[in-house]
Fold each of these.
Amino acid sequence: MKKVLLRDVAEKAGVSIAMVSYVLNGQKTDRINKDTAQRIRNAVEELNYRPNFLAQSLKLKKTFSLGFIAADIANTFSSQLARIISDEADQAGYALIIGSSDESKPRFERLINQLLNRQVDGLILAAPEGSDELIKALQDRKIPLVLIDRYFPELSVSSVSVNNYQASFDAMSQLMKDGRKKIGILVYDTTLHHLNERVRGAQDSIIHSDSVSYECHSIQEDLIEQEVPAAIAAMLNEGVDAIYFTSNKLGIAGMRYLMNHQITVPTQVSTLFFDETEVFDFYPSPLPFIRQPLADMGKKAVELLFKQMNDATLPAEACVLETSLVQSHLNVDQ
Amino acid sequence: MKKVLLRDVAEKAGVSIAMVSYVLNGQKTDRINKDTAQRIRNAVEELNYRPNFLAQSLKLKKTFSLGFIAADIANTFSSQLARIISDEADQAGYALIIGSSDESKPRFERLINQLLNRQVDGLILAAPEGSDELIKALQDRKIPLVLIDRYFPELSVSSVSVNNYQASFDAMSQLMKDGRKKIGILVYDTTLHHLNERVRGAQDSIIHSDSVSYECHSIQEDLIEQEVPAAIAAMLNEGVDAIYFTSNKLGIAGMRYLMNHQITVPTQVSTLFFDETEVFDFYPSPLPFIRQPLADMGKKAVELLFKQMNDATLPAEACVLETSLVQSHLNVDQ
DNA sequence: TCTGTTTGTTTAAACGTTTAAACAGTTTAA
DNA sequence: TTAAACTGTTTAAACGTTTAAACAAACAGA
């Protein structure tokens, strides 16, 4: 079962391979004889010819594939994003190669090199901590590139993100309006700007009111299962009456602790999550959370990327999308 | 910022491009002058040369990439599998291109063609309903291929799956041992063999005991949100005291219904799930489930695929892995 | 001195496409 | 009648690698 080549089609149709190529690519249609064209199309059909993508790409210097490096593809946030980006790319005739850095900078760098070796036409990146110079270097090499979720304020690179500061600010206002007096904030110990913005927004909001206080606990990403329980225990000890989880993984670890210790929400302590997960469905009470517009983010990222691919001289564009504060996940459709 | 080519390196080192290629690929090491080799390596380093993957692949007729088509990448089962397969491929120096058929056969076919056009070296497929002839055709074309999760008993293709029948059989035995008398089974209305095996195993198990009865409800995949509530309502009406959800999506939809109607588990009705999800963490009582050995499945699939890629004449190998019945997800690590 | 071997390197074809340029034959315009 | 323009098709170079084969120089054995 040999591979069918352009040459085989040409032979069968009794023409040169150039003719087959022209017909297949719809070029010189005004010049080519209708009968010949039809003969070629028939041969293509009969032999079930499929062009070799590698050869095409090599010649055209375009692979019609995009790369997406997620922060952690096992995380719902990433996988849903991947799904949307994949669909968008697909619709435009592009394939998507997905990688997961697992928040490791060396791994991130390796993946980028892999993708570039494979000559992807553009990159969508959820960049891990400390990867700013790396991103800068890519930009200097004029590689079409869009950051998603995370971004570096000192870098002028196209990006899609949400209003982390405002979202947190508003969420805390809501908690205070609900009468919470002492708010605990859980965040990663990180330099990632978007996460710190979440904390800053929360703090600024709480500072406005002098009857409410807060305490902020930093968690090492790789020690979630140890440090989150400790932090929550400490908070509860301090009389915290609301906890703000600034990421979904922190939230899940936190809720697991609360459940294991029979601490009920919102009666004993109330909670607020950044990001939505299916797990909320299984908790007996509504759990309010900040929803990111995943679909819009993915679509916008692909859109910005295509823009750049079409015109490398275009200036960077930072797109900031609005989040929404959702009171409950339950009973939405029943 | 022009791309650095083999030619540029050769020029810089004052040798032919063949020499550079030989040095880079570690060939003819006994012949090549040590100094020349070093000079070439220096030039490679200084110019930061990266080989063009397309050109390499075209020449070598090998792309060092695998394709994985998931049933639904937004489903935890698929995304975790993707993660494992991706890691395994990565370790072997292969990239993974991921697609999601969303259980649609036409989409599945399109994805396969895309992947083959891109000359992937092998495929790992979670095949949707009715795709048996398609798989057969691929096999006839001698395309290295491993089925995962789903398989077709009438086809002799390499596959990795779990003991669906036995898992269900044992799970039902456990429910009966716990005193359940009337068991409801929820399954998709499908011809997918692995799902039907789950039902068959359950039925065979229950039939053994004449004091226990069961009823089985078939759900249309695209109407889950309507049909699952209806089925559960009907079951409860019939006095069912245990429900077996044969897939995680069915389980989640089912639990959402139970929660919205304040029906508690296991006091009012007990449950059993095929597949594990993070959502179980958030339910106040332990929820028993059948666990599939995801990591083993992914690893085995990659292993079988590599085997085939290395020797196309090898016979198909069906690998059936053992599941485990887990009583509770909670308190495992605290 | 001649032949054969070893060492170090280059030449050139190949992988499967795309496409500018060339070509031959026919028609049109002056 | 001759040149210009058009029609339909082919030729051949290019994309960036790999690698078999050829080559040249140095050396060894007779």
Amino acid sequence: MPPGRRERKKAATRQKIADTALRLFLERGYDAVGIREVAAEADVAVTTLFSHFASKEALVFEQDQDFEQRLMRAVTDRAPHEPLIPALRREVHALVRHCTADSAAPIWRMIDESPALREYEESMRLRHAESLATAIAADPDLSRSTTACRTIARFAIDAYSLAREAADPDAAVDEIFRMIEAAWEATSP
Amino acid sequence: MPPGRRERKKAATRQKIADTALRLFLERGYDAVGIREVAAEADVAVTTLFSHFASKEALVFEQDQDFEQRLMRAVTDRAPHEPLIPALRREVHALVRHCTADSAAPIWRMIDESPALREYEESMRLRHAESLATAIAADPDLSRSTTACRTIARFAIDAYSLAREAADPDAAVDEIFRMIEAAWEATSP
DNA sequence: TTCCGAAAAGCTAACCGTTAGTGCTATGTT
DNA sequence: AACATAGCACTAACGGTTAGCTTTTCGGAA
């Protein structure tokens, strides 16, 4: 059954809000644009805006679920008997490249300049680390302690976060993952 | 010259605000107590409260600078030629014990129950990691890359954060630091 | 001692993100 | 055709935070 008119309209409203918000934020700065302004420009009521997005920050990180699912799939969908760490490294490489692409630069500059957005992203990363830890703990090939799984998941997210800020992001991913590889091997029986 | 009356009064006001806030928060819940209420109970104006504390959350994490300085001193004040990782592990052990002591339990329960406080603490941890990374990078005995220093600092903070939530915090610190030790050795030439 | 400049504290009034309450309108279903 | 419901709008408010301005209090110089 194809999506009905109702769902299409809802999706369109959501998209229009997100597009309008991002445009205004990039034009005039995140902090300088109020929620009431975004709603007016998108021609919706403030309450409608908040029925689509849980907070002002969520307007910026619209597709953060992609991020989370890609990390988990890097673990669950990897080839049989492929070791964990290289699979994770490959995915983190891809994510970092995606974030450091020239087209994404203005958005990340905006995020860096707003403490509220930075805090929100930090919080998001922790959620992602928890999901990743669950995926790792669920793999029967690995069978490490809960603490080891959560630790490696945090380390992988740290790699993403640190590499994004490094002068040479690609090299930073490799450098950090050499450390993560050693940490992971230190947990095997 | 000993501190004058002015500074003593200022410190007393600050302390009274912090004590009142913590008492009210523990009695009736962080979210259930408003800033105006804290100010009234401490007998100060709201603006005075905000001249002493940057935010409502900062009322709870009053002495977070202690935390930051203890971590940095564990690096800078360690015995000559003492390796880095054991010194860090010792300090993280102490910090975790301090936070998981019975007397601190109600405070951490309150923090766990409030998303705003959790986010604030996450943000604090990142700041602490940056300070720690600076201290590590400044040690001439170590001479690792900037990325390696920042990575190890993050890992140490992760250890603190993860161990605090583990069933056996002491054992978790040891387990995670075995991983950190391996990661650190993977960076030596 | 007296007086001045500055720091601390106060008051008012607002801004901004967010939510509850209520009702209207369009859509999918019977 | 009629009903149930999801989406949206509007108003009004709440709570954290800040700007602007006045008053009090202290430290030191005259």
